[in-house]
Specification:
Layout: E1 2-4, E2 10-11, E3 26-28, E4 39-44, E5 47-54, H1 68-109, H2 118-126, E6 137-141, E7 144-147, H3 148-173, H4 177-182, E8 193-196, E9 202-204, H5 205-229, H6 236-251, H7 260-267, H8 272-303, H9 306-315, E10 321-331, H10 338-348, H11 352-361, H12 370-374, E11 375-380, H13 381-387, H14 390-396, E12 406-411, E13 416-428, E14 432-442, H15 450-466, H16 471-481, E15 493-494, H17 504-510, E16 520-526, E17 529-541, H18 542-566, H19 575-593, E18 600-601
Parallel strand pairs: 8-18
Antiparallel strand pairs: 1-2, 1-3, 4-5, 6-7, 8-9, 10-11, 10-13, 12-13, 14-15, 14-17, 16-17
């Protein structure tokens, strides 16, 4: 007997073709006597150990008589199966080619779209994203292991944040103000500078950065675990921001002094691929914690019922009142005799009519512009307290106030004089607050005319109208057209805007009662630019938002500061290991930042 190479059917030696499948290839049968109780064994250095099972004696049984009609049917079925299999392979190959071609075309048309790294996808699905994958474990927070890489990256981030803050003060206020406000000099070794921590102790900036790193890790782990328990997941857009952050770190375009990517590759010796994975893990944890916090707070807000809000406002009505007022202000440097001038104002400004007369004569405001330039509606008490003084706030929100009452505020200590006139005394406002998105467009080169800028704004609106006219479409236009890069990350979003928080053109447009979701317009920003405005929705009133904030404050505090109770100082980071880590980090920073030797002490 011989065996068909295709279907393993036993075939007589005198047959040249298998009667079952038609194959003409065969294998010879072998006859071997095998002892009935033979055991397969493995020989080790310690001796012979049995790990197999008994092997039965195998013999080929004699073939049973074959029905010729049955053989023909089986042969046809076999041939049909083979044909179908071949066709399926061809179809699959064709689909694969078409799919690859379409994907290639799609990628060409969407060059900014990056595939989400597999490690992020996996972590999001399994909800068990690791605190480390590489290198040494620094310690544990409860049962969560934390890698040395995460500690070092967090330390560098603390240093980078302080250095960035220092440079911002220097840029905005002048040389020396960075050190004045932060107490930190980026040109000097952090170990040689001291500051005061939250406990009031004097510590080196080196220890301060590491203390902050430990606290940040405890916070992130706490919120990460909370998010996992709540089955929270990052959105595709949020994960894309992780990809963007990793790319910025790799390319050195993140704006930080010390590159975390260079540290991992040059100092720690990781490959480029592994360094990107570590950075993605690090950013994932931080993004997850921060975005879960926002999500959880929004969930708390949504859980507050309208009845609870109304009851709270009713019980605390005085706290939510606002007033409509006319305001004039003057710099004391513009007045020769300040005391005499203030006395004259107090005597002459006694009602709205005299207020307007002074606005024209002393403040050079045309009569027809007084309403636009002087009237402020829905002004909250805390706004006056913070920006003028408490005496003015007390006067303005007194039950004795009536329309036309005037008050002159002497703030010569701060170089200012204010004149107030009540338009409408304190009241409870039920006005709902709108959310909008803005794309400011102004001359960035010094070479554009106002007509060029207006044409660009109109082009932005035209592109929106030529598309699907959705909010997502507008968000994409923000990154393309906005002259303010700070608005790009949030898509130009301003939620629940208050009265008096924007220029008049934007406020008037946003609070127009006829406004509908999806409305888009070009508004005048100033003499040098325009703004494209998109209307998102109408939300709660200022009082309602304040009530919700008060009703959820305790739970939100438990969420954002709960780590301080449950996780603070739980990071088991052995002292000698911490010390050696700081020493190694300082040695690397010395190479990068070229520190001087002078020590400083923060005030």
């Amino acid at each position: 007997m011989k065996i068909c190479a295709e279907c393993k059917f036993n075939v007589e030696y005198d047959q040249s073709v298998c009667p079952i499948c038609g194959c003409d290839r065969f294998e010879e049968t072998e006859t071997e006597d095998i002892a009935e109780d033979k055991v397969v064994t493995e020989t080790t250095e310690e001796g012979t150990s049995s790990f197999g099972t008994l092997v039965e004696e195998v013999k080929n049984p004699a073939p049973a008589p074959v029905d010729e009609n049955e053989l023909k049917i089986k042969k046809k079925n076999k041939q049909l199966t083979v044909i179908i299999a071949v066709l399926l392979v061809i179809i699959a190959g064709f689909v694969g080619i078409i799919g690859a071609a379409f994907y290639s075309y799609w990628r060409d048309q969407n060059p900014k779209v990056e595939k989400t790294p597999e490690y992020v996808q996996t972590a999001q699905k399994k909800k068990n994203f690791p605190m480390h994958n590489f290198g040494e474990v620094a310690g544990k927070i409860n049962e969560t292991e934390v890698s040395m890489d995460m500690v070092e990256l967090c330390y560098i981030d603390q240093l980078n944040s302080m250095t960035y803050l220092n440079s911002m003060y220097e840029s905005n206020y002048g040389e020396g103000y960075g050190m004045l406000f932060t107490g930190f000099d980026p040109d000097i070794n952090p170990a040689l500078q001291t500051t005061t921590n939250q406990d009031g102790d004097t510590v080196s900036f080196d220890d301060y950065f590491m203390d902050c790193a430990e606290s940040e890790i405890e916070r992130v782990v706490f919120l990460y675990n909370k998010g996992v328990e709540a089955e929270y997941e990052l959105s595709d857009e949020q994960i894309e921001k992780i990809n963007t952050a990793v790319d910025a770190a790799v390319k050195g375009t993140d704006g930080f002094t010390v590159s975390t990517y260079s540290y991992l590759t040059e100092e720690k010796g990781y490959s480029a691929k592994d360094a990107k994975v570590i950075l993605a893990q690090y950013y994932y944890l931080i993004y997850f914690a921060d975005n879960y916090t926002v999500f959880a707070q929004d969930e708390l807000d949504a859980q507050v019922s309208d009845d609870e809000i109304a009851a709270y406002i009713s019980e605390n009505e005085e706290d939510f009142k606002v007033a409509d007022i006319y305001i004039l202000s003057k710099d004391t440097n513009d007045v020769e005799d300040v005391a005499e001038y203030i006395a004259g104002l107090k005597e002459s400004v006694v009602d709205l009519e005299s207020f307007k007369a002074v606005a024209v004569s002393d403040f050079d405001i045309p009569t027809d512009e007084i309403e636009d330039k002087c009237l402020m509606t829905s002004v909250a008490r805390e706004v006056i307290s913070a920006n003028v003084d408490e005496e003015a706030a007390e006067w303005m929100f007194s039950d004795e106030r009536k329309p036309g009452d005037c008050f002159v505020v002497d703030l010569t200590t701060f170089g200012g004089i204010y004149v107030f006139c009540i338009s409408e005394k304190a009241y409870l406002s039920n006005e709902k607050l709108p959310s909008i998105r803005l794309i400011p467009i102004y001359d960035e080169t010094g070479e554009q005319t106002i007509e060029d800028i207006k044409a660009k704004a109109d082009e932005c609106v035209a592109n929106f109208n030529d598309g699907d006219k959705t909010e997502d479409s507008f968000v994409k236009l923000v990154s393309e057209y906005s002259s303010d890069p700070n608005l790009v990350e949030d898509g130009g979003l301003f939620e629940a805007i208050e009265r008096n928080s924007f220029i008049k053109s934007i406020e008037t447009w946003a609070f127009d009662e006829s406004r509908q979701a999806g409305d888009i317009d070009v508004l005048e920003l100033n003499a040098n630019g325009y703004v494209v405005a998109y209307y998102v929705k109408l939300g709660r009133s200022s009082a309602e938002n304040a009530a919700v904030e008060s009703l959820t404050a305790e739970k939100k505090t438990a969420l954002t500061e709960g780590w301080a109770e449950e996780y603070k100082d739980t990071f088991e980071f052995e002292k000698e290991l911490r010390k050696s880590t700081q020493t190694a980090l300082l040695a690397y920073l010395e190479k990068i930042m070229k520190f001087g030797e002078e020590g400083t002490t923060a005030a």
